[in-house]
From TrEMBL:
Coiled coil: none annotated. Involved in formation and maintenance of cell shape. It comes from Streptomyces chlorus. The gene is mreC. Belongs to the MreC family. This is Cell shape-determining protein MreC. Pfam families: MreC. Keywords: Cell shape. Residues 275-313 are annotated as: Disordered. Residues 130-270 form the Rod shape-determining protein MreC beta-barrel core domain.
């Protein structure tokens, strides 16, 4: 529409009429003369408004979702942090339970052998002190630890103390090639010397070349003079292989140690030797052999083939 005198006059007239209708509607209240027109307009334009509202609502919901997503992300992050903290706490509890169990086993061995021990935790491993297989424990001279003391855990012989500081000590493990300990066979008096071979089985040289030894026999420490470096009766291992004697003066055995030298945490240092040799009392109970199930097969004799043919005829 062009901007002419007539168009401006029409615009003023429409505005004046609109204000007049608004004034009449307000003054009329519920009995407004334009109420019928309003309802007719609602009837015509209502469905269109609903359709437009339905089309706009998903967008509004999406906007609301984006607006709230930050809060949900924060809640999720908080839950993840709480979960991680719980897992760390659970892991700590598991480790503490494991250490408590190891300490209980060490105390059990000490009670069976009547060893006076000082509990210790391993704080380092490796060859820093010049040995191939060593550990560092968190007790030292201030705790009554001395050189050439026996070290054990709940499974058996771990090693011997070689170096002592004020607060720490170094232990040479029993599987080190420089390690040697006197041994005695279970339920017998066959003596020998066990030596470490790194990650291989312990090698034991029996003094009696004709000794009757079989797989599964077990060994304990024989003990040293004045109980240093070894106290008697500490479990060493189980025979896994026996070399033929061949008329030699000694007999060679290969022994699987009771202790797993790659899984050490809590150990005990024997600070007081037993008054009497515990002999074999510290050895664990032998597992009972699993009975072999017996299967009985009953064979039912079948009728001869010829007899079957005659019956069919």
């Amino acid at each position: 529409m062009r901007d002419t005198r007539e168009s401006r006059l029409l615009l003023v007239l429409l505005i004046t009429t609109a204000f007049a209708l608004i004034t009449v509607d307000i003054r009329g209240g519920e009995d407004s003369p334009v109420d019928g027109a309003r309802q007719a307009a609602a009837t015509v334009f209502g469905p269109i408004e609903n359709g437009v509202s339905g089309a706009v609502d998903p967008i509004g919901n999406a906007v609301a979702a984006v607006r709230d997503s930050g809060d949900r992300h924060d809640r999720l992050a908080a839950l993840e942090r709480e979960n991680a903290a719980l897992k760390a706490e659970l892991g700590s509890d598991d480790r503490n339970r494991s250490r408590t169990k190891q300490l209980d086993e060490v105390l059990k061995v000490a009670g069976q052998g009547q060893y006076g021990i000082k509990g210790a935790q391993i704080i380092a491993i490796g060859a820093a002190q010049g040995f191939s297989w060593t550990i560092t424990i968190d007790v030292g001279a201030n705790d009554g630890i001395e050189r050439d003391m026996t070290v054990l855990n709940g499974d058996g012989l771990v090693g011997r103390v070689t170096t002592v500081g004020p607060h720490t000590a170094t232990v040479l493990l029993a599987n080190d090639p420089d390690f040697t300990v006197g041994t005695r066979m279970e339920a017998g008096d066959e003596l020998g010397f066990a030596s470490g071979q790194g990650d291989q089985l312990l090698r034991v040289e029996l003094l009696n070349g004709k000794a009757e030894i079989k797989k599964g026999d077990r060994l304990v420490t024989f003990g040293s003079q004045a109980d240093k470096p070894f106290v008697p009766g500490v479990p060493v291992g189980t025979v896994s292989r026996v070399d033929p004697s061949g008329g030699d003066l000694t007999r060679t055995l290969y022994v699987t140690p009771f202790v797993s030298f790659t899984k050490l945490d809590i150990v005990g240092v024997v600070v007081q030797a037993p008054k009497q040799d515990p002999r074999d009392t510290v050895l664990p109970k032998k597992p009972k052999p699993t009975p072999t199930p017996t299967v009985t097969v009953t064979v039912t004799p079948s009728a001869p083939a010829g007899g079957q043919d005659q019956q069919e005829q």
